TrEMBL record:
A Pfam family per the record: Glycos_transf_2
Organism per entry: Cereibacter azotoformans
Ranges where the Glycosyltransferase 2-like domain occurs: 5-118
Protein's name in the database: Succinoglycan biosynthesis protein ExoU
Taxonomic placement: Bacteria, Pseudomonadati, Pseudomonadota, Alphaproteobacteria, Rhodobacterales
InterPro entries for this protein: Glyco_trans_2-like, Glycosyltransf_2, Nucleotide-diphossugar_trans
PANTHER family tied to this protein: GLYCOSYLTRANSFERASE, GLYCOSYLTRANSFERASE 2-LIKE DOMAIN-CONTAINING PROTEIN
């Protein structure tokens, strides 16, 4: 069944976009690959077009202004026609046979992700991956919220999943990416879909390779980005949910809120000094504890020697 559009939002991805495009065009289920160059200052558009296989399935459009990943993805969705939509980041690539393993009847169908360092991406081979159990795990809003909670120093990562999405479900509910969000935009869209009744199936086999780069958008937490994510998490609580899902969502919101408060505290310290920052932390007093915990966590992290980078790691254990 050739019914998938792979959409790629790209910004200054000249070095990696061709590999991403070629990996998508190699999949038999792919009817379209749509690249939206989000006002790059390098040759991203030319590199993407250079990866065309001549099948007529590739569309490349360049935006005049940088609008962020959500706006670029929404533009790609608008340019596409296929029944299913798959997200591929411009740094990443797909493994052969990925889409054949995903259930086409689900509203969201995801597989495992392997994260690799840039140095390892060039020589990565799928045979290095462990065997994965068979079967589909169904995720609901509660499980998804819990899967994004930080546990100690390790953050939950289900929001990094790159499911294939049903265009019909998105259209039926009028859903698109929230263009105010430059952080957590995937998490937000998946959560809204789940709260509106989407069936989300997850398999443990790996079909997606994510290249971890320190300068990626997801690696930076700007104050405005965290504020937009917090606002989205609050909006999720306005949708119908079970009591257990609502409790999990509140826990996630609390963690996002704590990160935002710490960021705002540090902003005030940089702009107006420690006295102004302490005034912010104590007014109201409920702010103080999450900020103090965040400061202590950052201080302890700075004392620990950095862990050596692993060439590859799985998002989900198998």
């Amino acid at each position: 069944m050739t019914d998938i559009c792979v959409i790629i939002a790209a910004h200054n991805a000249q070095a990696t976009i061709a590999k991403a495009v070629r990996s998508a065009l190699a999949e038999a289920e792919v009817a379209e690959v749509v690249v939206v160059d989000d006002a790059s200052t390098d040759a991203t558009t030319e590199a993407a077009r250079g990866a065309d296989d001549g099948s007529g399935r590739l569309i490349v459009e360049r935006q005049a202004q940088n609008g962020g990943p959500s706006a670029a993805r929404n533009r790609a969705i608008a340019l596409s026609r296929a029944a299913r939509i798959a997200i591929l980041d411009a740094d990443d690539f797909l493994l052969p046979g990925r889409f054949a393993r995903l259930d086409p009847t689900l509203d969201l169908a995801a597989d495992n992700i392997v994260f690799v360092t840039p140095d390892h991406a060039a020589d990565f081979v799928p045979s290095s991956l462990p065997d994965a159990p068979t079967g589909v795990e169904m995720l609901d809003a509660e499980a998804f919220a819990l899967g994004n909670l930080a546990q100690g120093v390790r953050r939950g990562e289900l929001g990094f999943l790159k499911p294939v999405m049903s265009r019909a479900f998105l259209a039926r509910h009028g859903l698109r990416y929230d263009e105010r969000m430059w952080l957590g935009e995937d998490f937000d869209l998946y959560m809204r879909m789940l709260l509106l009744g989407a069936r989300f199936g997850l398999i443990r086999s790996v079909g997606y390779v994510a290249v971890e780069r320190g300068a990626s958008l997801s690696g930076r937490h700007r104050t405005a980005d965290l504020a937009a994510l917090e606002s989205a998490c609050r909006a999720h609580l306005d949708l119908p949910a079970s009591p257990s899902a609502r409790a999990a969502m509140r826990r996630h919101l609390q963690q996002v809120r704590a990160k935002l408060l710490l960021r705002q505290f540090l902003d005030r310290k940089a702009e107006a000094g420690i006295a102004a920052a302490l005034g912010f932390a104590l007014s109201p007093p409920a702010r103080f504890l999450p900020i103090a915990r965040g400061v202590a966590r950052d201080k302890l992290a700075a004392l620990r020697p950095p862990a050596p980078p692993r060439p590859e790691r799985l998002l989900l254990p198998v």
